[in-house]
Amino acid sequence: MRLSVLTLNCWGIPYPYFGSKDRALRFDKIAGKVAESNYDFVSFQEVWDEADFERLKGQLGDVLPYAHYFHSGVIGSGVCVFSRHKIVGTLLHRFSLNGYAHHIHRGDWFGGKVVGLAKVRLEMDDGRPLLVHFYATHIHAEYDRDNDLYLPHRTLQAFELADFVRHTSEGADLSLVVGDLNLEPGDLGQELVLVNAGLNDAWTNRPGAKDSANDEGMTSDKPNNCYTPERQKLRCPKGKRIDYIMYNHNPAVKLTVDSCEVTMEKIASDSPINFSDHAAVTATFKLHSVGDARSNGHGGGNAEERRSMLRPLLERSIEIFNDGLQVVKTTQRHYILAIAFLLLILFITIDVELMIPRLAILAMMGRFATTVVLAYCTWHGIIGLRIERKALMSAKNAMVIYLSDSNN
Amino acid sequence: MDVVLRVLTLNCWALPQPWPIGSKHRSYRLAKLAEALAAGTYDIVALQELWDESDFVKIKDAVRSTLPFSHYYHSGLTGSGVCILSRFPIVSTLMHRYSLNGYAHHIHRGDWFGGKVVGMAEVEIGDLNINVYSTHLHAEYDKENDLYLPHRLCQAFELSQFVKHTAKGAHLSLVTGDFNMEPSDLGYRVILCNAKVKDAWTMRSLSADEDTGATCERPDNIYTPKSLLKLCPDGKRLDYIMYRKGHADIELVKCENRLNRISENEDDVNYSDHIAVYAEFQIKTMGRRSSMNSSATKEECEPAAPLLGKSIQILENGERRAKWDRRFYVAVIVVLATIFIASVNVEIHFPAWAIPALITRVVLTLIIGFCVWYGFFGLTMEEKALKAAKLSMIQLLNDTT
């Protein structure tokens, strides 16, 4: 049998002014294009408005009758899945860390990023049942490669993604992990995902991959994308490959990658507008069953190899977490200083309006703002940063356990 | 190969804060607990409410010779309080933080800060893989008017989903901990049904001198408040060892309560305000290929649909309540903002009121700030989490096989 998969970051920020350009038009075109195609599984990311999801559901209902939105955070998660075949169960994992609430120019924190799982039951050509686990995700954005403030969070998300897939995919015949990882091939997080979860990248496993070394399969910040900002074009002139379709399968199922392409760029050959600021990735798999042997888990024989590949990745990740923990310590000190400073200001200005009555309203507003900032600093400095510290320690300890196991 | 597995779970009640928040006699009780664990023959020990990491380290060190492997699940502000100790190697761990866990502003409860989780440890005994889960769900507080019911139900559902999805590779899965739910509660039934686990206490072979099985608020526990005894004279069974067979032959040898009073001495106290649950299993892997699914248990568990239906209703009530709360918070913001603005020149007219006016305005600012945050963000996050659980349940109802 053949299974066809699509993933696209739709860039669907719904607010006026800050929101994504041409959103209504693009979503309409996205729905139109997917409705006339033949996909079995589709995942969209950055569908922030539930109304957009409902509209997509309506427009895709004939070809992809089963759909699920993974609700999380304040505005998110933005991740949803559509399936031609019946979804029999879903599971959601919210990443423990996802940026900072006060980085409002980023907004990731409010998105409540997740990895979502949709379980789908199919029947193969010989009547044998096939259980497919369709995972979709969207990891925190990078923003500044040279000084990645969010690196500990992003590494933790990659690790939690890999761990989640590894632990929940035991019973599946085929696991598909798709989405916008915001990590490039070779990045620590991306390797962590592939190695820890035992996944293969459909793009690097596509037929003819070795011959077409020039085609790098870029999916974002592409020079011919009308939404790519000029400064990105200068920084990475070719674009980045950050959207993936990854897979692994039970040895009882034989699988080949029939094709893997970057697609859905311009909405029409004569139009300057792109479907999104990302391009889509699509892959087709050919499957048939190989005997009745159902083995325990995936590729058990490669466990030793996996462990030795995993070791340096975990060690580098632990270093990153240690850096992150150090940053938390220094930040806590800064926040305590800020709290002291703000309290001092409030105290000093106590009688300002008695001395200069005209300043009464200004003083009141100033004190309101100062108090709010003070309250936030107290919350984040004492509680928020401690929660961050625990999340980093939690991931670090889990990794240490893996490393000690490799010694056995 | 036949393996005997001896499992213990205990809510240690170890709040490290000074009186009145902290737990009474904490250091003494934990020291005695460490002694009991080191002297006893346990293979797997799951502890909850061990809030202070240094308490965990002390116990870890004390039992090092019999339970050399361990893991503490860090989460939230003070927690999670959940840890697992094992005689056999822990080869990997996984943790799931519940999406809903009470309210930050219910500081008289404190559950929110605990960052409640279900922690999983994969334990390897030779060729056997044992998945050990330990958890501590949000407390009930008022059975008649359970404010936290949607959250607790959501936690029970997420626990069952987590176990269901991660248990497949294991020969035996053990789900232990303080569920803060009784066998008659909907959440308990959802866990049993969705995760396809069995309750070791109900599956035990009965003997003559039976205990009630109550693990909390027992009349023979000196920490049980008198007021609770009046409501519930026998105590409640809130702590469990549940199990699920994988591809191995499992026999429950025994299940009993342990670690009640520290000694026979009349003046001596109990180990905790809970007592421990102990279960012993025999695992046979004699080359016999048992079926991978625990399909034998399917007939014995409740049909899922009515349980999920009731749960969906409770979650929808939670969503409705959150929407109503938002209107309330907006009203509060408007009223407080009006008071704030109206008071603008009060100290110019009445200079003596300068300091009280300032303090009142600071307090008003904090309350307005909280109401804005909670009304627009906090409640939205709660609604989304409830919706996510509800949709997940609806998807399960689609699975008619």
Overview of the structural elements:
The complex is a heterodimer of chains A (408) and B (401). Helix content of chain A is 39%, strand content 22%. With 408 residues, chain A is an alpha+beta fold. Chain A has 2 domains: 2-301, Endonuclease/exonuclease/phosphatase (Deoxyribonuclease I, Chain A), CATH 3.60.10.10; 325-406. The longest helix of chain A has 47 residues, at 360-406. The two termini of chain A are 41 Å apart. With 401 residues, chain B is of the alpha+beta class. Chain B folds into 2 domains: 2-302, Endonuclease/exonuclease/phosphatase (Deoxyribonuclease I, Chain A, 4-Layer Sandwich), CATH 3.60.10.10; 306-400. Chain B has 9 helices and 12 strands. Chain B has helices at residues 26-39, 53-62, 149-166, 186-195, 200-203, 226-231, 304-342, 346-349, 354-397; strands at residues 2-14, 44-50, 69-72, 83-86, 90-97, 117-125, 128-136, 172-178, 198-199, 239-245, 249-258, 276-284. Chain B has a 6-stranded mixed beta sheet. In chain B, a hairpin with a 2-residue loop joins β6 (117-125) and β7. In chain B, α1 (26-39) packs parallel to α2 and α3 crosses α7. The interface between A and B is large, with 60 and 57 residues.
